[in-house]
Amino acid sequence: MKIQFDSYCGIYCGACSTPGCKGCKIIDDTHWSPNCKFIKCAQDKGIEACPLCDEYPCEDIMKFDNDGYIHHKTVLQHGLRIKEIGIPAWLVEQKKRWSCNQCGRGYTWSEETCQSCGSKLFSVKKEFGVKSK
Ligand SMILES: [Zn+2]
């Protein structure tokens, strides 16, 4: 089954390690957060993702970006980039950003060292200077 790596809120699902989840745009029983307010809001407004909304970034997005969870910190930056270049080009950029620049293995937000080749990785913590929660 295909995984969809773009989300409603702007999180890049390709850097997530939640087992079984196929992304929030493929709603089924395995999705991590069926009650997500961003999904509901975007669907009510008939938009493909939050960054494409006229009200972006809204208060909820700003709160989410600053709630202390390490991967939520990527949301605003991603959203502004999506506004600029669109979702398909953003997905290409993100795939590259979350791949080890030595061996090409994909990695997740909190990883600091590549499990395949031992290279130092560009984690969220490094990029944003945030502590994990
Ligand atoms: Zn590597």
Describe this protein's structure:
The radius of gyration is 15 Å and the shape is globular. The protein is mainly alpha-helical and 133 residues long. It contains five helices and no strands. The protein has one domain. The protein starts with 36 loop residues before the first helix and ends in a 5-residue tail after the last helix. Helix content is 32%, strand content 0%. Helix 3 packs across helix 4. The protein binds zinc ion. The site of zinc ion has 8 residues, from loops.
List the helices and strands and how they pair.
Layout: H1 37-45, H2 59-65, H3 75-85, H4 87-97, H5 124-128
This protein binds zinc ion.
Zinc ion binds at residues 100, 102-103, 105, 114, 116-117, 119.
Q: What's this, in brief?
A:
With 133 residues, this protein is mainly α. The chain has helices at 37-45, 59-65, 75-85, 87-97, 124-128.
